[in-house]
UniProtKB/TrEMBL annotation:
<dbReference type="InterPro" id="IPR003789">
    <property type="entry name" value="Asn/Gln_tRNA_amidoTrase-B-like"/>
</dbReference>
<dbReference type="InterPro" id="IPR019004">
    <property type="entry name" value="YqeY/Aim41"/>
</dbReference>
<dbReference type="Pfam" id="PF09424">
    <property type="entry name" value="YqeY"/>
</dbReference>
<dbReference type="GO" id="GO:0016884">
    <property type="term" value="F:carbon-nitrogen ligase activity, with glutamine as amido-N-donor"/>
</dbReference>
<dbReference type="InterPro" id="IPR042184">
    <property type="entry name" value="YqeY/Aim41_N"/>
</dbReference>
<protein>
    <submittedName>
        <fullName>Glutamyl-tRNA(Gln) amidotransferase subunit E</fullName>
    </submittedName>
</protein>
<dbReference type="InterPro" id="IPR023168">
    <property type="entry name" value="GatB_Yqey_C_2"/>
</dbReference>
<keyword id="KW-0808">Transferase</keyword>
<dbReference type="GO" id="GO:0016740">
    <property type="term" value="F:transferase activity"/>
</dbReference>
Length: 147
């Protein structure tokens, strides 16, 4: 079942349950996917849908960080709820240990030995963890292991 079909079914359930928060987020996700389809001029494959979902998740995490810096707990709470809803549609997230193993493998494969080769390692790691790990977390682990 495609992601759009899943979103449509969940949207109907949210309407029946009068769950306005879920409904709003699901509509936003659906609109993002449809906009991407229009931009491409064709249906999205699973990888492209995952890219759209990852972008939506990143936007919410960035917003959460900014709201917490500004001490806007009302907005931060709203974004936290949105993150929980978006997470339902993303694949299971990798643990820190799993990310470390992938990063270590990439460092070994690329032969990276210094922080100067950060880009090379990130280029090898990101396709493997796409949608399964937060880029900021991966970034921090790569920096730490290249020290």
């Amino acid at each position: 079942m495609s992601l759009l079909t899943t979103l449509n079914e969940d949207m109907k359930q949210a309407m029946r349950a009068k769950d306005k928060e879920s409904l709003q987020v699901i509509r936003m996700l659906k609109a993002s996917i449809q906009n991407e389809q229009i931009k491409k001029g064709q249906e999205l494959d699973d990888e492209e849908e995952l890219t759209v979902l990852s972008r939506e998740m990143k936007q919410r995490r960035d917003s959460l960080t900014e709201f917490e810096k500004a001490d806007r707990t009302d907005l931060a709470d709203k974004v936290k709820k949105e993150i929980v809803i978006v997470e339902k549609y993303l694949p299971a997230q990798l643990s820190e240990a799993e990310i470390r193993a992938i990063v270590q493998e990439a460092i070994t494969k690329t032969g990276a030995t210094s922080p100067k080769e950060f880009g090379k390692v990130m280029g090898a790691v990101m396709p493997k963890v796409k949608g399964k790990a937060d880029g900021n977390q991966v970034n921090a682990i790569v920096k730490e292991l290249l020290q």
